[in-house]
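User: Predict Mechanosensitive ion channel family protein's structure from this.
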Amino acid sequence: MIEKLIEKYADAGMNLLETVILFIVGWYAVKIVLHIFSKMMKRSQIDAIVENFIISILNIGLKIIVIITVIAKLGVPTTSLVAVLTTAGAAIALGLQDSLKGIASGITILFSKPFIKGDIIEIDGYVGTVQEIQLLYTIVMTFDNKMVVIPNNDLVSSSFVNYSHEEIRRVTISLEMHPDTDIMQFKKALMKVIEKHPYALKEPAPCIKISDYKQQSVTLQVWAWASNEHFYEVNDDLLIAIREIYKEQKIKIPTQRIDVHIQQSDTDYENV
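Assistant:
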């Protein structure tokens, strides 16, 4: 009897020792696997936010597997535990459905890279510089120093403009002139300004053309190309130059004419 008890407790002690060893080995194995995955992702130049998210999910998932394995080693039935964890996971996923969509959108943005930190984008009337790309939100700082927090769901499901995607941009200025203006003289003067500007590109070539004729005005389109870095400088300098040319050449700005027609009614007011 005593021998059976000793044997029983010896088996139990050995099983407990094996379980502790299994737990320690499994716990350290998780760290090794995470370290290997982290190195692989760094070599792949994956964004740090995505890397941290994937490592966190792997860390939780692998540790749950280790804990379930340890519990099974102790002889505790794990079927019901797995069922509870599955049900709880489904309930959490359902409750966090919108957040999970946002996370998926954030990962999509970070992998596809339609824009990166420092790019100038426009969405929903906001124009600014991308300050940070998080899993749920993208933070944009507008030019008047307002922080705009945009859900990644909106960025993935709607259209936006990335002004920094290409290295160069076209400066486009629309002008209204009086029909009597010497357009060729104006074009010649403005083209000289564009050609002498240090940041206006020679290729693609600048262009000044008539885009529309109206009864009281002529519309001109001014096109000049510049790098993203100097876009606003070229745009502002051309506007100033255009104003000076208007003054030098005494160009008239067309005014809108409103014709008012008064129609006399045939009503007889004598009996009123």
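The radius of gyration is 35 Å.
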